[in-house]
């Protein structure tokens, strides 16, 4: 039910995205159409007006040739000669002839004795044809063309006008047709967008449906990638990579938890059995002391293991704040030797240290010491009694930045090549029985690797046959080193 509920919610949101896209497109398209219709109407109107003025000008020229004198100094003309083949609008022609001082000499019948533009304007129609829109007394708007003309030596002004109403009605028709088609066009465009987005978003729907299936237990599921080259395919790939990383982390976490519990179980079981066995019979105080000593040994191992686990979990959670300082690396090596020297002495081993005391690094000293300590401790643990362990410190000049190299070489059993890549993994032991005898849980090198890497260094192992050599590389703090060199130069 829960899943079904989620499915429905998803469908709704997917449709709404599709719907939103369609509405946005429809709105934008409608607005564009309105602008388009506006511009088209305006252009159409201008064209019609231009055409009307052009016809009026031609007719005015004809009218000038048809003027005849009439009694009382008036003029008249035979309007039947007019024909207007160019105009597709049926327009009513209005005609007025007046003297330059405004006396009306002729008005045609359709003008119904109305005034066509009032008294003459200064220089009206002289040189060129004068065009203007005039509102008549009855409210009609007309397009008037006037021209100056000499008739039998008398200067006259001829005005010819057409009513604007037929133009307006033609424009109205034009707008009506467009207004009728526009909603159809918008609906059609929206339908196309709705269909296309539906098709385009269908991989997304499938991706989301699959994503809803993915839980912590099903992290191996992956989103379908339909077209790796398009945006959705790219998103799916990125998401799948994220899932891969999550799956890896989860697997690592699970393995870590089960390995850690396993490691904790062994010393705890050992503690319990030592206690139970010792309680079964009466013992002398000496024997009890031995029992307590072996229990304490197990407790020491447990404490060591818990410390390592704590270090690793802190490192994983990023809680550790590095406190970096610049310090001579050889001092650190000597400090490590002082800490583990007693263990080497127990096994009659010799630790030899050779190196340049001027090599200075900038790192978290405490964390780095843990790394060197673990490596040297391993060298002691896994090398036979009476063997020799060398710790060499030198600067490696090739490459940038310049690097300091601590090499820990022992005469132990060596590490087979196939194992060399794994020994830095958590809880990895080559020979678990032997390693556990030494108190190891397979965490020492994992911690060392982390400790070196957070200090911008690298750790590697080299082993061919007997003996191994662990090398830790760290960037040299050149500024401090050059100060030290300068001081040395000055002293010598
Ligand atoms: P442990 O705490 O068990 O020593 P590490 O992580 O320190 O675990 O080492 C992992 C494994 O690598 C060990 O179990 C051991 O078998 C092997 N190893 C580490 N250092 C050496 C060495 N110097 N010589 C031989 N084997 C080593």
TrEMBL record:
<dbReference type="GO" id="GO:0016301">
    <property type="term" value="F:kinase activity"/>
</dbReference>
<keyword id="KW-0902">Two-component regulatory system</keyword>
<protein>
    <recommendedName>
        <fullName>histidine kinase</fullName>
        <ecNumber>2.7.13.3</ecNumber>
    </recommendedName>
</protein>
<feature type="transmembrane region" description="Helical">
    <location>
        <begin position="21"/>
        <end position="45"/>
    </location>
</feature>
<keyword id="KW-0808">Transferase</keyword>
<dbReference type="InterPro" id="IPR005467">
    <property type="entry name" value="His_kinase_dom"/>
</dbReference>
<keyword id="KW-0812">Transmembrane</keyword>
<dbReference type="Pfam" id="PF00512">
    <property type="entry name" value="HisKA"/>
</dbReference>
<dbReference type="Pfam" id="PF00672">
    <property type="entry name" value="HAMP"/>
</dbReference>
<feature type="domain" description="HAMP">
    <location>
        <begin position="198"/>
        <end position="251"/>
    </location>
</feature>
<dbReference type="InterPro" id="IPR004358">
    <property type="entry name" value="Sig_transdc_His_kin-like_C"/>
</dbReference>
<dbReference type="InterPro" id="IPR050428">
    <property type="entry name" value="TCS_sensor_his_kinase"/>
</dbReference>
<dbReference type="InterPro" id="IPR003660">
    <property type="entry name" value="HAMP_dom"/>
</dbReference>
<dbReference type="InterPro" id="IPR003661">
    <property type="entry name" value="HisK_dim/P_dom"/>
</dbReference>
<feature type="transmembrane region" description="Helical">
    <location>
        <begin position="177"/>
        <end position="201"/>
    </location>
</feature>
<dbReference type="InterPro" id="IPR036890">
    <property type="entry name" value="HATPase_C_sf"/>
</dbReference>
<feature type="domain" description="Histidine kinase">
    <location>
        <begin position="259"/>
        <end position="478"/>
    </location>
</feature>
<keyword id="KW-0418">Kinase</keyword>
<keyword id="KW-1133">Transmembrane helix</keyword>
<dbReference type="Pfam" id="PF02518">
    <property type="entry name" value="HATPase_c"/>
</dbReference>
<keyword id="KW-0597">Phosphoprotein</keyword>
<dbReference type="InterPro" id="IPR003594">
    <property type="entry name" value="HATPase_dom"/>
</dbReference>
<dbReference type="InterPro" id="IPR036097">
    <property type="entry name" value="HisK_dim/P_sf"/>
</dbReference>
<keyword id="KW-0472">Membrane</keyword>
């Amino acid at each position: 039910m829960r899943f079904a509920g989620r499915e429905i919610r998803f469908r709704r949101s997917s449709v709404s995205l599709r719907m939103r896209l369609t509405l946005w497109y429809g709105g934008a398209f409608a607005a564009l159409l309105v602008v388009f219709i506006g511009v088209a109407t305006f252009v159409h109107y201008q064209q019609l007006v231009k055409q009307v003025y052009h016809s009026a000008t031609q007719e005015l020229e004809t009218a000038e040739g048809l003027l005849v004198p009439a009694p009382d100094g008036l003029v008249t003309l035979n309007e039947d000669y007019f024909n207007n083949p160019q105009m597709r609008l049926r327009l009513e022609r209005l005609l007025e002839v007046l003297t330059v001082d405004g006396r009306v000499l002729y008005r045609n019948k359709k003008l119904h004795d109305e005034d066509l533009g009032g008294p003459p304007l200064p220089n009206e129609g002289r040189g060129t044809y004068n065009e203007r829109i005039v509102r008549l007394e009855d409210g009609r708007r007309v397009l008037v063309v006037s021209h100056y003309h000499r008739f039998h030596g008398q200067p006259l002004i001829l005005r010819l006008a057409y009513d604007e109403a037929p133009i307006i009605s033609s424009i109205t028709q034009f707008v009506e047709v467009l207004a009728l088609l526009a909603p159809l066009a918008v609906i059609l465009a929206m339908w196309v967008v709705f269909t296309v987005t539906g098709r385009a978003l269908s991989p997304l729907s499938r991706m989301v449906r699959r994503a809803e299936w993915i839980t912590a237990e099903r992290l191996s599921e992956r989103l379908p990638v339909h077209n790796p080259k398009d945006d959705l395919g790219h998103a799916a790939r990125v998401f799948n990579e994220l899932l891969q990383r999550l799956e890896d982390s989860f697997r690592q976490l699970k393995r870590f938890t089960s390995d850690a519990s396993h490691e904790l179980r062994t010393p705890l079981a050992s503690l319990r059995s030592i206690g139970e066995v010792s309680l079964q019979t009466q013992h002398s105080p000496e024997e009890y002391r031995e029992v307590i000593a072996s229990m304490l040994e197990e407790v020491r191992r447990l404490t060591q293991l818990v410390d390592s686990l704590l270090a690793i979990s802190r490192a994983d959670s990023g809680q550790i704040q590095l406190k970096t300082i610049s310090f001579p690396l050889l001092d650190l090596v000597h400090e490590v030797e002082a800490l583990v020297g007693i263990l080497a002495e127990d096994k009659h081993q010799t630790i030899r240290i050779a190196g340049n005391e001027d090599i200075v690094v900038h790192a978290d000293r405490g964390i780095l010491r843990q790394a060197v300590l673990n490596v040297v401790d391993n060298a002691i643990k896994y090398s036979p009694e009476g063997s020799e362990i060398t710790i060499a410190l030198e600067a490696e000049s090739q490459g940038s930045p310049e690097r300091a190299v601590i090499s820990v070489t022992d005469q132990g059993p060596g590490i087979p090549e196939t194992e060399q890549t794994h020994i830095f993994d958590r809880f990895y032991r080559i020979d678990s029985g032997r390693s556990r005898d030494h108190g190891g849980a397979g965490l020492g090198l994992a911690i060392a690797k982390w400790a070196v890497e957070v200090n911008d260094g690298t750790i590697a192992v080299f082993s061919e046959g007997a003996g191994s050599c662990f090398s830790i590389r760290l960037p040299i703090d050149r500024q401090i080193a050059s100060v030290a060199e300068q001081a040395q130069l000055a002293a010598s």
